[in-house]
Design brief:
The protein is 53% helix and 12% strand. The chain is an alpha/beta fold.
């Protein structure tokens, strides 16, 4: 029921107007999305860099079936790549292949993506291919491996621990020497392809994390789950894995208390910063894909509000940096 309501709101022009115009709604959205323009994203990246955090910029959009829109998205991402190089920001770029024409055909996708990879390589910048729903997993990995086999080493990929296949995909990526971002996964998937229970998703996350820390190439451990963070710290400590061999990754605006703590403890932390005009449907769809995310967002706000002191969340006295 809640999922249906959130999906309806994601397509509602009235909902967008309310979110755009209402001070409270807009402030909540701006907490988790940097803004609509490239300059908004760059400003967020500068602030995060000043706070000792690395950045990955993500221009919002997906499921593009228009060549014109795919080229336009590619042009915006190209502008981001140029700006990162020009301003010498500590940042890379994440892209969704469906935004760049994956649903049109692979030849068209390559025409849009190759110039971005070339521009990034010229500036010694890294581009991560985001992972979307399970129906795109193999197609995305095939596209990534093809680029890797062409000799491109400024590319990486995302793997999701809620999929049964991911432990094997981690092993394959490690054999390549490819950089992996490990996350749990946010899409609602059928039990045929994904673990339905959080306990199993978490257990697979830990197995994949351990394999990446042991045999991977500077993996990104992307989680806000304190149990997963502690498991990663513990495994790295027990196996004498230097902190320079991996990084934690978290979403812009989520659990800023933990973000600050990780940086203060000397861990590398990369913040995933979404921006763009598609922020409203993006935000609502993220909530709809797994309605528990809505409670997580509310909980994140409460933890850092004065109410958080009543919960003893450990953030007392910390000043958020983003």
């Amino acid at each position: 029921m809640l999922k249906d309501v959130l999906l309806a709101l994601s397509e509602s022009s009235l909902g967008r107007r309310i979110a755009t115009d209402a001070p409270f709604a807009r402030s909540v959205a701006r907490r988790f999305v940097a803004g609509e323009t490239v300059e908004d994203a760059l400003a967020a990246a500068r602030a995060l860099n000043e706070g000792g955090m690395h950045v990955s910029l993500d221009y919002l959009g997906e499921s593009v079936n228009s060549a014109e829109k795919a080229h336009a998205a590619g042009a915006t991402i190209g502008a981001v790549v140029s700006a990162i190089g020009r301003e010498e920001l500590d940042a890379n770029v994440s892209v969704k292949l469906t935004q760049l024409g994956q649903d049109i055909d692979d030849t068209f996708l390559l025409e849009v993506v190759n110039p971005l990879l070339d521009a990034a390589a010229e500036r010694d910048l890294f581009i991560r291919f985001d992972m979307e729903s399970a129906e795109y997993t193999q197609q995305t990995l095939d596209f990534f491996v093809e680029r890797w086999n062409e000799g491109r080493r400024n590319v990486g990929v995302v793997l999701q621990s809620y999929l049964y296949r991911t432990e094997e995909d981690v092993a394959k990526a490690n054999r390549l020497g490819a950089r992996v971002r490990l996350c749990k996964g946010a899409y609602k998937e059928p039990e045929e392809v994904a673990y339905p229970d959080k306990t199993d998703v978490d257990a697979n996350f830990v197995r994949c994390m351990e394999a990446l820390l042991t045999d991977g190439n500077y993996p990104g451990i992307a989680t806000h789950d304190e149990a997963m963070i502690q498991a990663t710290k513990r495994f790295a400590r027990d196996h004498r894995i230097d902190r320079d061999r991996f990084e934690f990754q978290m979403l812009y605006g989520v659990r800023r208390d933990i973000q600050r703590q990780l940086v203060d403890e000397g861990y590398h932390l990369r913040i995933y910063v979404p921006f763009g005009e598609a922020w409203y449907p993006y935000f609502m769809r993220r909530m709809a894909e797994r309605p528990a995310n809505l409670l997580f967002v509310v909980d994140s706000i409460v933890r850092e509000s004065p109410l958080g002191f009543l919960r003893g969340n450990g953030s007392r006295g910390r000043k958020p940096t983003a």
